[in-house]
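Repro case for the chain-ordering regression, as requested:
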Amino acid sequence: MKELRATVSDEEFAELEHLAQVLGVPLAELRRRSVAAYLTQVKAERAVEPIGFGMWADRPEMQDAAKWVADLRERAWTR
Amino acid sequence: MDTLTVLDTAVCIDHFRGLEAATASIQALPVAERATTDVTVMALYQGAANREQLTTIGQFLERYHVTRLPVVTAASQRAVALLHDYGLAHGLRIPDALMAALVLEGDSTLVTSNLRHLSWQVHLCGWRRTVRCRYA
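-- result from build under test --
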């Protein structure tokens, strides 16, 4: 087991304290559950094929995304 | 409510282009913070080549839990003010004004790979929380 420290906002700390009281568990347990839930979510996201990933890989005009956006706006919004 | 991190159009395009770093930068954001503007959604729809791609864009936003920020009244009013102040003198365009207004109204952070294009807006519009994507 390793120790993990976390910095949270005053509002988040107050919410966690309240939740710890309601649930009857120490703050450290809430931190452990938070990390476990986050890891589960990230693993689930990374396990599936990213939706749409690479669908515009063969679009030469989009190789410079910033330029494509600028060109689109130039065409659409020029008086 | 969490402060939102707003993905700009170029970041989403880079994901659809197959740039792994762009995808990773989106996945790295906490779900509750992920957002984009309806201005970006409309631009992405304009980039779709067929109905299948339109559907994929919608699924991407839904499955990644990206909150869509509509152009609400306050943002519209702020965009008008930004255009009044910076449109004629600095060439600020309507989409950029709307995006800036949405970010400013929500006190959000904008994630972009296009900081060069936005740098003057960061300065002029007080868009100081803009961050550069790590992969840019």
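Ordering looks correct now. Chain B has a mean pLDDT of 85.
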